[in-house]
Design goal:
The complex is a heterodimer of chains A (about 750) and B (about 170).
Chain A (H helix, E strand, L loop, with lengths): L7 E3 L8 H16 L7 E4 L1 H10 L2 H10 L8 H17 L4 H11 L8 E7 L15 E5 L2 H13 L4 H5 L1 H4 L8 E7 L5 E6 L10 E8 L3 H4 L6 E6 L5 E5 L2 E2 L2 E2 L7 H18 L3 E6 L6 E7 L5 H13 L3 H28 L7 H29 L1 H14 L17 H17 L2 H13 L6 H11 L3 H15 L3 E2 L2 E2 L4 H16 L12 H12 L4 H45 L3 E2 L9 H9 L6 E2 L8 H4 L6 E7 L1 E4 L2 E9 L2 H6 L5 E4 L15 E4 L7 H9 L3 E3 L4 H4 L5 E5 L4 E4 L14
Chain B lengths: L25 H11 L2 E8 L2 E8 L1 E2 L5 E7 L3 H8 L2 E7 L12 E12 L3 H13 L4 H5 L3 E15 L3 E5 L6
Antiparallel strand pairs in B: 1-2, 1-5, 3-4, 4-7, 5-6, 6-7, 7-8
The chains are: A alpha+beta (about 750), B alpha+beta (about 170).
Chain lengths: ~750, ~170
């Protein structure tokens, strides 16, 4: 081996502090070890080891393919997460070669096989002064034995390309050819007190103050934000305690400080010694007390600007840890969703026509406030809880190391989603239509005659008079409307759009009367996948695995339902606004045909409360995104669009873009559904489509999952899909490769062109 | 950066507008590639036999015409005399397999015609020689033929599979 660039370096070997070789974290810990500080014993697998692995395993090329597929600036966070998941699977699929295994064995020779180890990232440049990317890369704790260390090392390497790192790729200078990571393997030391300490106050580095934070138990509880620490401000020069702020733990404040004055003194001494050694003020993670203080990490204090802090806080909220997920699951599933459901029911039950004008104004305000409140909850709780599905993905892949990184999706199948129940009810009604030609013809005549202005109460009577067996259908349709279509879509209540649903039912009834093609390939059963995971984790982690599965399922179900439930609140706001508009029109105080929406709350409330306001006119609100109006420069046309292969299969058909509610009713069987994103309110269209193309990308989004379940090809993450593709375009959707080809396969060759 | 899990209810304020970043127009990318690359693969055919050869080329400013030269005793010349349907492939591929995603290529289809000596010849030869001064003597030789390709279509490929078409000379 090249002794100048070894694969492994012991932390206590003097002189090996080259950050390019061992990464920032290991370089500093090695230096501290050699200077006599107490640091957990261990070794570092150098960046050379990483490079040897990625080169031999062909990972560099795989990285380039993954990262070059689409401009990252055009990727949504979910797509970046997907890319990171596939990269992680690529790292896990490649075993370490003999040399690397032997190297790790040498490093482990100094430890007993039962010793719990921490396998930690040590990326080049991650701790550089002025920027800290703490938390972007992975550390794995409680690792025991050679095989487990090998697995952990590959995971830590893969985390060089984690979703978080990819988000900060520009700041990190991530580059498939040159980026590399060293890995620290250390004995785990978890004392009953741990914490973080700053040699200076990061908020004002000029002050002669040091900050110390401490929690009971291991330091990761503090770093992950799971336990509120006790906080001290100390005078750097005298060690005097300036303030002590007890942490809020177990819902109580503690009277006794976690640390004794001599502990604080020892920590401050260590901080100042570290500062002297490195020449910069450290931010230090520590564990243990005065007589056994161990330094876990030391890096320069970063003073991130508020913008960076905000971005990081937002980002971290998207990927809560297990403990936070547990709390969120309880809160979301047991408290928030039932509460949201109940608010919607209460609003729906209210008889608005019995209210006087002032009361109606109050009802509108109440609905508007409720909608705003629940939108906030959506961002604060529902979106972070959606991580439960991604957590299941990582847990499953790490344990099973499946060839297909999305195999775990099978575990989510057959969840009783509101949208699924709705689609089943729609399916049953379509069956009724398919089985009754007279009824279907009557309905078709009705739709042809009253296109755009169907009056459902009158229509239902007409149907019942003209077709046997219509009563059953009509009752089913009323029930469907009440149960599932009290939702807003495109700023209108679908409840008020029976024509859309009736047209979809006619189309769906056609698919029912035709023979089905091949059944989709569903892969292994839910039970088989669950079994595979439980076998992979072993009996001691069985309970943990079952919890991860269950949280994933609840998260998946609720992320779908929550959209529909919030859409119901908006529908109820629109209902109250419609009632107000009806009254004001009758009084001659509202002119124009525009229907009120959420943007008109203030004007409508004022008009109801103050008769003196006089006449009002509603401002029309733009519904078509500006991008939809743009067109490609003259003579240019796309031939192949690239997206993510979200559901396998290939199909050719004509495009139908769904931009809004009017397009829902125009959708015909066999068309290619092109839209910004398949929403839970429109998943019933999916069985009609020959293929799906979406702008919104991700393997775990509604459209992708439903398409896979139904065996319909889907390509998503296609930039500007719904703007570039036009109704009537012939396209071939290749769900295996993630390609949408525009135009006939044979293309218009140049044969007909005459010479100029 | 697009929002994660953007909600489906109306929350326009919180959403990023889709398609915020713009790709340079296809024409500009084609122009860039044509400017950067001195050589193209000329694709021709005759009697059912396809054939490819490397040529030095130059484009007219409006990208509607390309020119190249060939000695008359070549297989190229013979096949071009038989069939004027041609294609040119211009690309920036490096010699490393793992840089696939960074490659851009353009396939130009069109019809070729030999330009007889005279003012027209001088005009197109001048275009070629300005770009490839080392061909000056070559172009002047009596045994050298100059061909002009009248472009019908450009197909631009990036990121392995992203394909866009541009037909020059179309005006809205």
């Amino acid at each position: 081996m090249d002794s100048g660039h070894p694969l492994l370096i012991q932390l206590d070997a003097p002189g090996h502090w080259d950050e390019q070789l061992v990464g920032g974290k290991a370089a500093k810990l090695a230096q501290l070890t050699c200077a006599g500080f107490e640091v957990p014993r261990g070794f570092c697998l150098t960046t050379r080891a990483y490079q040897a692995f990625v080169q031999n395993a062909g990972i560099t090329a795989a990285l380039r393919m993954e990262l070059g597929r689409k401009s990252m600036d055009d990727m949504r966070w979910e797509e970046i997460w997907d890319a990171a998941l596939r990269i992680r699977a690529t790292f896990l699929a490649q075993p370490l070669d003999g040399v690397l295994r032997e190297t790790i064995a040498q490093g482990l020779a100094g430890f007993d096989a039962s010793t719990p180890l921490a396998v930690r990232s040590s990326a080049v440049g991650e701790d550089a002064a002025g920027r800290s990317f703490a938390g972007l890369h992975e550390s794995i704790i409680g690792v025991r034995g050679q095989q487990a260390v090998e697995d952990a090392v590959r995971l830590v390497w893969a985390s060089l390309w984690s979703d978080a790192a990819l988000l900060y790729r520009k700041e990190l200078g991530l580059d498939a050819a040159n980026s590399r990571m060293a890995v620290l393997v250390q004995k785990m030391v978890d004392a009953d007190r741990s914490g973080v300490a700053f040699a200076r106050d990061p908020r004002d580095m000029r002050k002669e103050r040091a900050l110390i934070e401490s929690v009971p138990g291991p330091c990761r509880l503090l770093v992950d934000g799971l336990v509120d620490p006790d906080r001290w401000e100390l005078d750097r020069r005298t060690g005097r305690i300036i303030t002590w702020l007890p942490g809020q733990r177990d819902n109580a404040q503690h009277d006794a400080p976690l640390l004794e004055p001599r502990d604080l003194e020892q920590i401050l001494d260590t901080l100042l010694s570290v500062e002297q050694l490195f020449g910069w003020s450290p931010d230090m993670e520590w564990t243990g007390q005065s007589d056994s203080l161990t330094v876990l990490q030391a890096r320069p204090i970063t003073t991130a600007g508020p913008e960076q802090d905000e971005k990081r806080a937002w980002f971290l909220s998207l990927r809560p840890g297990d403990a936070r997920l547990r709390v969120l699951r309880k809160r979301v599933a047991e408290q928030l969703i039932p509460e949201l459901e109940s608010v919607g029911q209460v609003f729906a039950a209210e008889q608005l026509d019995l209210l006087d004008h002032r009361q109606l104004a109050g009802a509108i305000e109440q609905r508007s406030a409720a909608l705003a409140k629940w939108k906030k909850i959506y961002w604060d709780d529902f979106i972070p809880f959606a991580h439960g599905v991604r957590r299941l993905a990582i847990y499953y892949n790490d344990a099973v190391q499946a060839e297909d990184p999305y195999e775990f999706v099978g575990l989510l199948r057959s969840q009783p989603l509101v949208a699924t129940q709705r689609n089943e009810a729609i399916g049953q009604l379509a069956e009724k239509l398919a089985a009754n030609d007279t009824l279907r013809s009557a309905l078709e005549r009705l739709l042809a005659e009253f296109a755009g202005s169907i009056d459902w109460p009158a229509s239902r009577d007409m149907l019942m008079n003209n077709a046997d067996g219509a009563e059953d259908f009509v009752r089913g349709f009323d029930d469907l409307k009440e149960r599932f279509f009290d939702i807003a879509y495109d700023q209108e209540r679908l409840y008020d759009q029976p024509e859309v649903m009736l047209r979809n039912l006619i189309e769906l009834s056609r698919t029912r009367s035709q023979s089905h093609g091949d059944e989709p390939v569903m892969g292994d059963t839910v039970v088989a996948l669950e079994q595979r995971l439980l076998e992979a984790v072993g009996p001691e982690r069985r309970a943990e695995a079952l919890e991860v599965i269950e949280t994933g399922r609840v998260s998946w179900k609720l992320r779908d339902d929550d959209n529909l439930l919030v859409a119901r609140l908006e529908s109820q706001l629109l209902r109250a606004l419609d009632e107000a508009a009806r009254r004001l029109r009758m009084l001659g105080r509202l002119t124009g045909d525009e229907r009120p929406n959420a943007a008109h709350v203030e004007a409508m409330v004022r008009a109801l409360r103050e008769p003196s306001t006089g006449q009002i006119t509603l401002e029309a609100t733009a519904r078509i995104p500006a991008a939809a109006l743009s067109s490609a420069p003259s003579g240019e046309a796309p031939r192949q669009l690239i997206g993510q292969p979200a559901s396998p299969g290939a199909a050719t058909g004509t495009v139908r873009c769904v931009h809004g509610r009017h397009d829902l009713g125009r959708f015909r069987q066999g068309e290619v559904l092109v839209c910004d994103a398949i929403q839970p309110t429109m998943t019933h269209l999916v069985p009609l489509a020959s293929a799906i193309v979406e702008r919104r990308g991700g393997m775990l989004i509604h459209g992708a999952i439903i398409a896979r379940e139904l065996g319909i090809p889907c390509v998503n993450g296609v930039r500007d899909a719904a703007e570039i593709l036009k109704n009537g375009d012939l396209v071939t959707v290749d769900g295996h490769l993630g390609i949408v080809t525009v135009g006939a396969a044979e293309f218009d060759l140049e044969l007909g062109v005459t010479r100029r | 950066m697009k929002n994660p899990d953007e909600p489906f209810f109306c929350d326009k304020d919180a959403e990023d507008s889709p398609g915020a970043t713009g790709t340079p127009a296809v024409r500009n990318r084609i122009q860039q590639l044509a400017d950067q690359q001195p050589y193209a693969v000329l694709c021709i055919q005759g009697e059912g036999q396809p054939y490819g050869a490397l040529v030095a080329f130059a484009f007219s400013e409006d990208l509607q015409h390309a020119v190249f030269v060939t000695p008359v005793a070549t297989r190229k010349y013979r096949l071009l005399s038989e069939c004027d349907h041609v294609a040119l492939v211009i690309d920036n591929r490096p010699n490393k397999a793992d840089e696939l995603m960074e490659i851009e290529a353009v396939t130009v289809t069109g019809r070729s015609q030999m330009i007889e000596r005279g003012p027209e010849f001088d005009k197109w030869a001048g275009l070629l020689v300005t770009r490839h001064p080392y061909l000056k003597t070559f172009v002047k030789a009596a045994t050298c033929a100059l061909f002009r390709v009248d472009v019908v279509r450009f197909l631009h490929v990036a990121r392995f599979q992203e394909v866009n078409q541009w037909i020059p000379g179309t005006h809205s």
